[in-house]
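Hello,

Our lab assistant flagged a job as stuck in the queue for most of the afternoon. It eventually completed. Since we weren't sure the result was trustworthy after the delay, we are filing this so someone can double-check. Below is the sequence as submitted and the structure that was eventually returned. Let us know if re-running is recommended.
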Amino acid sequence: MTGAGRPWPGRLSLNQATVKKLSLDEAVGLCARHDIPAIGLWREPVAEAGLAHAAAAIRAAGLHVSSLCRGGFFTHADPAARAAAIADNQAAIAEAAELGTDTLVLVSGGLVPGSRDLPLARRMVADAIGELVPAAQEHGVRLAIEALHPMFAADRCVITSLGEALDLALQFPADAVGVVVDTYHVWWDAALFAGIARAGERIASYQVCDWVLPLPADVLLGRGHVGDGCIDFPPISAAVAAAGYTGYVEVEIFNETVWNAPPDETAAMVGARFPLAAPG
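-- returned structure --
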């Protein structure tokens, strides 16, 4: 479900990654206690809880599911591994539909193991998405291509800018393939605002967290609460709104300190800082 028509304060979503140490039931309860109307789910805790149980618990709590993370990781040289990845993504599409979300976030995968050929990896991503489009349309789920910061190109995602993600998405029907705008990954891009405007209806998800310094040894965990780092959120959020996006705004933070904090403290901070990510 999207947050169409909701005012910005009612469009807050807590991505499960922000409270990684909680079970699905615990994360659902946290959202309910703090009046957070939506949750962004991850497949692993959903599987641990059981898909049917997860869907029922979310419905019982009155929550919306803003997205399911994640599909993707398509860049395999071995045909059997590639076929397994396609099958896993088809399963993820069905899971998203069962959970009541129309958005499956894709992280494409890094370089093909043993290869330095970036164009090859990117072709493999495009081919895989093309194979998944019929299943996405059948289930009413959009494949949301997420561009990751270029420092993750080798091992996680060869799609490294919003413009590149959009060029890929535009090869496919709009109801089946969109893009993610994640502030952590795209804030640095001089072409960001032009890309957001061009994306328009293709924006399937908007995720926010801050870029904090110094970066930790594991740069994946260099994210912080909105307002704690370098990102100027209001212009980005205003551009996303002007492009026509009316869905939920997910707070997705990978950070050991945040994970170790009391979950209620984290949820309270997310709520308090959320207005900083809304358009002025």
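-- support follow-up --
The delay was a queue issue, not a problem with the job. The result is valid. The two ends are 25 Å apart (CA to CA). Residues 178 and 202 are 4 Å apart (CA to CA).
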